[in-house]
Amino acid sequence: MRWRDERGSAAAEFVMVGALLTVLTLAVLQFGLVLHIRNTVLDAAAEGARLASFADNDLNDGVARTTDLISVAIGPAFAHDVRADYDTYLGHSAVVITVRAPLPLLGLLGPNGLLEVSGHAAVETVD
Question: What pTM does this model have?
Answer without folding.
Answer: 0.84
